[in-house]
Design brief:
Order of helices and strands of chain A: HHHHHHHHEHEEH
Oligomer: heterodimer
Shape of chain A: elongated
Radius of gyration of chain B: 18 Å
Number of helices of chain A: 10
Number of strands of chain A: 3
Order of helices and strands of chain B: EHEEEHEHEEEHEHEHHEEEHEH
Strand content of chain A: 5-15%
Largest sheet of chain A: 3 strands, antiparallel
Structural class of chain A: mainly alpha
Strand order of the largest sheet of chain B: 1-2-5-6-9-10-11-14
Radius of gyration of chain A: 22 Å
Distance between the termini of chain B: 18 Å
Amino acid sequence: MVASAAYREYVLAQPDDALAGLDLTERERRRLLAIAEQPGMRVNTAIHRANRLTPLDQTLPFTCFLLGDELGPLVDRYWLENTTENLQLPAECERFGKFLQDRLREGLVSNPYVAEVLAFERACTELRFSVDAAPAANRPAPRTGLPPRVRVVRFDHDPVPLLESLSQLAPPPPDIASGAFHLVIDCRTGDPEFRLLDADGAAALRDRGLI
Amino acid sequence: MISSRSSRPSFKADTEIADAPKLGVGLLYNPVLPDFVLAEPEAFDYLEFIPDREWEDRGVAAESRHGMLEASRAFFARVRERTPLVCHSIGLSIGSAGIFDTGHIEQIAQVHAEFDVAWHSDHLSFARLPLTDHEMHTALSLPVAYDEDMLAMLVERVRHVRSVVPRPFLLENNVYYVDQPEQDMSEPEFLNRLSHESGCGLLLDIHNVYVNASNHAFAPEAFLRDVDLSRVVELHIAGGNELLGFYTDSHAGPVAQPVWDLVDQTLRAAPWIRGVTFEFHESSYPLLKHEGIKAELDRARAIWERHC
């Protein structure tokens, strides 16, 4: 009833059907019905939604900004399909990231920058919440072939003006160059450092099958 | 008016509360605070942090379930060199009838061992629900029913927590926006019995009392008269705002004057108080900034020094 105003309405309209299958005492049943009709439940639902949005806003702020008016319907669907076991930031970022990738494949996201910015923010979140032991920071990870504290993200648009505008929560400028760009995120010394790979560097990583 | 303390009653010998150090004014850590914490170490006497936010939980089925985040480990180790730490967990969900997460408690014990935390607390509430094949998190801390069977379950669970984590354990009074009818006890009676029968201390969130009093039309002073303040070890203070006709515990910005008045009255009458913690949500940092945080801490310190 906290997560879904529709279910709360269902409980009020058809309590026998809505509560069927729940192992309730008579007192618990009376309580649930009394709670369902209180206006404070609207506050609970509003706080529930805000608390579910917070992890997404904290880990994927640029993606959320780019989605604009599409964000609301997308999170409604995401929350309907994904009850969550916990609200830890990296886990919630990954769950929503995968959900959004599926919607991108379905063509349900109109902004042309979302895919690459989503990949960038997922990589940043993965690095920010690293639990790797410090001595292993320079050892190549089996999955990526890169040091665990390093990621390379491919952009189809020049990431410098794109990320600069998003860092000001401003729409991307209209004249961003398109092409293949590879942005290195390097956290080996602590705070992230960013640099663009030049053509030779990109080719070398491509030859090694790393990008 | 709440009665002034005339003597200091002793906690029972079977509880760790009496050993809790008297710390003073604390600050609840959030992601916008690293700069402030490192730049203004004199502004607070202890730093309270939410351990669940500083570790990765790979799920109850994972072989190696928890991992402390590298950056968190380094940061809190640095802070601990000069400032006491206190834990305030959000993940135990001690009131979930179908879930008792002993792995979470063992991880809390690990954090204590690593950072020598002065005490730890969690919420007298539930947020985790067992579904057919997985858990659901409500994304909201919901109040337990103040019933005899809930009390019996919680007493057993608190005893388990205390047996695993060798530090004082506190439970925090919750905020609620709906009333649960037909409860066996009032909230103060439930808090008093839970504390006395289980050996836990109370983390009295004064802002929660104020929020509940505002939304449910009772006098907060009466609530504080009914709670056994000799069981209160820590106070939480925060700001709030209006939403859909209710006053909410949003932790938005500075503490309201009526809350300060209640803090003053409570500190005067709580003989085992060990700390007062200011908390705010990271999204309200623009309302406070460094100067605003410091002003709230200074104001708490003035009241603390008047009474403690």
